[in-house]
Specification:
39% of the residues lie in helices and 19% in strands. Strands 7-8-10-9-13-17-14-15 form an eight-stranded mixed sheet, with helices on both faces. A six-stranded mixed sheet has the order 1-6-5-2-4-3, with helices on both faces. Strands 11-12-16 form a three-stranded mixed sheet.
Length: 530
């Protein structure tokens, strides 16, 4: 969509659908904000009266739609509930904006006017509105004949009207631009995940990574089986041997232009990229296999984040993305339960379940990432059903034993509107991975399955601060909700962008170390020479 930002006042703004978000208590009496009062006056008081009669109280998820019958410069007005103002978070507005976009599409509106509510967080709410609208218009229907033949008008433009007393600024323009680029990249990731597995193969994923790198000014290095063998990634190779599809090794690099910044320790992002997971010889049941095209959602989120990091955020430190892409298939050449694989780190792993393949590929990727001496490693993976059992469909499980790094990721997630919950990673659980014939097993007992997987990954990061994000649930929405559709969500991408952005801000606000006075430096040198 095309977005424009206008200074807020009570005057009408153009758009076939006028959207006015409200907090509880603002519909009645003197609490009505200026945009609502203006629209209600133009409609002879019918807007608030009709909304009240329909039971609209501005609670979260509530909405009320009214045709203006030509009395406003907008065909319809949509009231959206934001709930209690004291508990407001931008994610509430992001979800509401998504509902507005879906309403506009249903009404065949081509333009929307969105009145931003008055808060003390203008930049955050502008970004939330833009992201919600752009994410809300997303559809993956390219394989439906009816959708291809549908010539009806689409939502093309949105006017974002600031609240009365708020003027346009560079900061607000930047918030709009960042929100739009983030949402566009998340939608790109959703496309990758929603595509069928016969389309997004490891080779095709690598091509998408190369194109993303070209657009964002990133360096891209793509390798095949020979490179994987040369790097002694025995676990990664073990997973690949059952498939006719060639694996791909993907390494994207953002490097700051400033030579001093380029020498800083990089941040490493690692994404799981099993483009289709049959379970291997430990074959999944049919109903559990249908959605396994989504087992590369972690890599899609990492690639989407890199597009924004390189194209918009441009932090004063390098950022690397490491992805091992392959299929996990059963065949006469597939790896077997009982096999022992040797990781790049030299550790040996007994295979007890070929359906625990993602951690094998990630283990070699984590080792490789660690060799680049990063300041921290963050991995995203649709890793365990156990995490879904614990946290459901909308909450990411976060693991790590470096409190500062884990907390920075959780803070970024909260700011980005993605819900995460820290889960324990206790060495007491390591017995589940003990093997009689190798250094460890790739799969333990059923109990604590998400923790077992995190403990397995921990073996390959050493002392580097590390956070593992299990996105098995939130990577794929089971139903439409706010800006989400049924299907891929792009989970984790917004958090990674926000994490990098916050780290960039932290560096920018750090005071420069003071140089020692010349005379004192000379005295120190003379003393040393004596």
């Amino acid at each position: 969509m095309q977005f424009s930002l206008v200074s807020g006042d009570a005057a009408p703004v153009s758009g076939e659908l006028l959207v006015i978000p409200l907090f509880e208590g603002e519909l009645v009496g003197d609490a009505a904000p200026a945009p609502l009062a203006t629209a209600d006056s133009a409609l002879d008081g019918k807007l608030r009266a009709a909304a009240t009669q329909e039971g609209f109280k501005a609670k979260v998820d509530q909405s009320f739609l009214l045709h203006t019958l030509g009395r406003l410069g907008n065909d319809r007005v949509l009231l959206l509930g934001l709930g209690n103002r004291a508990r407001f978070q931008p994610e509430v507005l992001r979800l509401a904006a998504g509902r507005a976009a879906k309403t506009a599409q249903r009404l065949k509106a081509t333009s929307i006017a969105f009145r931003v509510p008055a808060t003390d967080r203008a930049e955050d709410v502008v970004r939330a509105v833009v992201e919600g609208l752009e994410l809300g218009v997303y559809r993956f229907d390219k394989y439906k004949s009816a959708a291809r033949e549908d010539k009806s008008p689409k939502l093309k433009s949105a006017t974002i009207a600031l609240p009365p007393g708020t003027e346009k600024s560079r900061a607000l323009d930047d918030a709009l631009t960042l929100g739009l680029k983030v949402a566009e990249s998340v939608n790109w990731a959703r496309d990758l995940v929603n595509e069928p597995p016969n389309v997004v193969t490891p080779v095709r994923l690598a091509q998408a990574a190369q194109q993303a790198a070209k657009e964002a000014g990133l360096q891209a290095e793509i390798g095949g089986r020979k490179e994987i063998e040369r790097l002694n990634m025995g676990m990664f190779l073990g997973v690949t041997v059952g498939s006719a599809q060639e694996p791909r090794l993907i390494h994207l690099v953002y490097t700051p232009k400033n030579a001093k910044d380029a020498k800083r320790a990089p941040l490493a992002l690692v994404g799981k990229a099993i483009t289709f997971d049959s379970g291997g010889l430990s074959l999944k049941p049919t109903e559990g296999m249908v959605e396994m095209k989504t087992d590369m959602a972690g890599s899609a989120a990492v690639l989407a984040a890199m597009k924004v990091i390189g194209g918009v955020v441009k932090p004063p430190f390098p950022v690397h993305a490491f992805i091992g892409a392959c299929e996990n298939m059963p065949s006469g050449t597939a790896y077997k339960p009982g096999d022992i694989l040797t990781a790049r780190s030299g550790k040996t792993v007994e295979i007890t379940n070929t359906d625990a393949e993602g951690r094998l590929v990630l283990g070699d990727m984590l080792t490789w990432a660690g060799e680049h001496e990063p300041s921290a490693i963050i991995d995203l993976a649709t890793l365990t059903g156990a995490c879904m059992v614990a946290l459901g469909n909308y909450i990411v499980g976060a693991f790590g034993d470096d409190d500062a790094t884990v907390n920075s990721v959780l803070d970024a997630a909260k700011s980005a509107g993605e819900e995460m919950w820290r889960l324990p990673i206790s060495d007491m659980q390591k017995d589940a991975l003990r093997s009689d014939v190798a250094d460890m097993k790739n799969s333990g007992e059923r109990w604590g399955g998400a923790i077992n997987a995190a403990l397995f990954l921990k073996e390959f990061v050493g002392d580097i601060p590390w956070v593992h994000l299990d996105i098995a649930g939130p990577s794929n929405s089971p139903k439409e909700r706010g800006y989400l559709n049924k299907g891929a969500t792009g989970s984790g991408a917004r958090t990674l962008v926000e994490l990098v952005r916050q780290r960039a801000v932290d560096i920018a606000t750090q005071p420069e170390p003071k140089a020692a006075p010349v005379k004192a430096a000379k005295r120190a040198k003379a003393k040393t020479s004596r």
